[in-house]
Amino acid sequence: MAIQEIHVPDIGSFKDVEIIEVLVNVGDNVNAEDSLITVESDKASMEIPSPASGVVKELKISVGDRVSEGSLLLVMDVAEAAASAASPPSQPSPAGGEGAKSSAPAAVPPSPPRPQPAKSPTAAVQADMKDVDFSKAYATPSVRKFGRELGVDLNKVSGSGRKGRITQEDVKAYVKDVMSFGGVPGKGAMPANVLGVAPMPDIDFSLWGDIETVALSRINKLTGEFLHRNWVHIPHVTQFDQADITDLEAFRKQLNEENAKSGIKITPLVFIMKAVVAGLKAYPRFNSSLDAKGENLIRKNYFHIGVAVDTPDGLVVPVIRDVDKKSIMQLSEDLKEVSAKARDKKLKPADMQGGCFSISSLGGIGGTKFTPIVNAPEVAILGVSKSDIQPVWNGKEFAPRLMLPLSLSYDHRVIDGADGARFTTYLAKMLGDIRRLLV
Ligand code: CAO
What we know:
The protein has helices at 80-85, 141-150, 168-180, 218-233, 246-258, 268-282, 328-343, 417-432, and strands spanning 2-7, 17-22, 29-30, 35-40, 45-49, 54-59, 66-67, 72-78, 93-94, 236-244, 288-290, 297-299, 305-307, 309-311, 314-316, 319-320, 357-361, 380-384, 388-393, 398-411. The protein is α+β, with helices and mostly antiparallel strands. The longest helix has 16 residues, at 218-233. The strands form 5 sheets. Strands 10, 13, 16, 17, 18, 19 and 20 form a 7-stranded mixed sheet that branches. Strands 7-2-4-5-9 form a 5-stranded antiparallel sheet, with no helix packed on it. The chain has 3 domains: 2-84, CATH 2.40.50.100; 121-195, E3-binding domain (Dihydrolipoamide Transferase, Irregular); 234-438, Chloramphenicol Acetyltransferase. It has 8 helices and 20 strands. The radius of gyration is 27 Å and the shape is elongated. The chain binds oxidized coenzyme A. The site of oxidized coenzyme A has 21 residues, from helix 6, strand 14, helix 7 and strand 17. Residues 265, 267-269, 307-310, 315, 335, 339, 360-364, 372, 384, 386-387, 404 line the site of oxidized coenzyme A (CAO).
């Protein structure tokens, strides 16, 4: 045995890239070509394999560190035979191409966070793989992701790729095998929670005309995974309503005139935030989250509101804290600050955590209603569309009133339809006469 430092080999155009996964721990027995870490650039992720077999003695990096060719990764007690064979560094494997040795890997979504070990993985194909430990499965992040999406426990799939690496074809063959045997091969019936959803086909669009491929931003990819998870896990219902904001709008315009010199613009959104807080106080179930087992509701006695901000790189939801304690002017300032931070990419993860309820306002753009996706672990989200003048019957005649469309999506496991309707009715009442917010 010999102590050897393991460095990042030639990784082509990947420079100063972030480590998104450390796949080994101190004490692990590693075989040559086993993946050590996954790095990610703006465009792609890539696994760095071990150049030698041996035991990991010391890790010199952790998730979030940035590395380039030559960076020290770890110290290994290398097996004698492997030590001499270890001199030419192994090539990293681009996550997008099985066994490929390209320095310009294809763009793929980042690998999801490393899951915790499963307590009792009984089924070969499961609907939810988030708790299953794939760390010993020899597969690229894209194949791990594919396996998770199909609910396949990769630990049970044999790899036909180089050095036994599991390929996408192996996963497909495994699923076919399990399906054709009506369950776990040789072990009985199909588990009840099989997803049963076919993977998206890989289509060559150039067959029908000129195309170009544009890599998704990191925010697009993360948001996509997050929204997909919430869409699949949460039974959504969307309740539509309208608030008469004719008087509110007159007051808002007056405030803006009075504060013209302050440089702070008051938009309808800050009043909506205040009305939402009143709603959360009146209907505390909306200010709660389900615990991980789905058995208890965690009720919050604070009022932090997430606001969806549209940026050139995608959607982010910074959280404005203690909305109940802030004035309309203060909230307008906060909103201006967080949207500027979001658009300048200066938001930190902590700025986007701890929200109780989110608001997605498309009122500055247009549209009449939409169905926002709940921002879990929150249980409801309010979509706001563009207000417009409508004829409203006042008992004697139709009067022109400024109506604001509201679209409330909620988690039906926590909120009943009646409460959904009560909540929007309450919001409309508050926004229709904002003096009520003081009561
Ligand atoms: N009806 C009519 N006009 C509205 C309105 C509404 N509901 N909401 C805002 N407006 C007006 C504002 O008063 C402002 O008018 P002036 O320019 O005349 O003053 C204009 O529209 C632009 O407002 P804004 O968008 O700059 O400000 P905001 O406070 O309403 O919103 C922010 C701030 C950050 C939420 C917004 O800029 C944004 O990014 N919205 C997009 C959110 C998004 O993408 N959601 C989709 C997520 S997917 O569910």
